[in-house]
Write a structure and sequence with these properties.
Blueprint: H1 2-12, H2 19-28, H3 35-45, H4 50-62, H5 69-98
């Protein structure tokens, strides 16, 4: 994940996203640079217009917040209830084990 952040940082700074620059950014962050992961990321970014991809990702992320925001919140509340019930059931099961 840190490699992706480093690539985004390089892009934002207007620097070339290549192996050497990516290694420098990751090392500056105090994280060990994994050669294989960096090479894989650079290979997968070859021919990709990062600015265009970020723009399309922003449009996709903003779309659900439009007209159906109320419905999304209602669905979130419905999903939270089963989780709470599962936690209570798990706690009851543990109490049975330990008396």
């Amino acid at each position: 994940m840190e490699n992706i952040y480093a690539a985004l940082l390089l892009h934002k700074a207007g620097k070339e996203v290549n192996e050497e620059n990516l290694k420098s950014v990751v090392a500056a962050a105090g994280v060990e640079a994994e050669e294989a992961k960096i090479k894989s990321l650079i290979a997968s970014l070859k021919g990709v217009d990062i600015a265009k991809e970020l723009e399309s990702a922003s449009l996709v992320a903003a779309a659900p917040a439009g007209g159906n925001a109320g419905e999304a919140k209602a669905e979130e509340k419905k999903e939270e209830k089963p989780k709470e019930e599962k936690k209570e059931a798990a706690a009851e099961g543990l109490s049975a084990l330990f008396g």
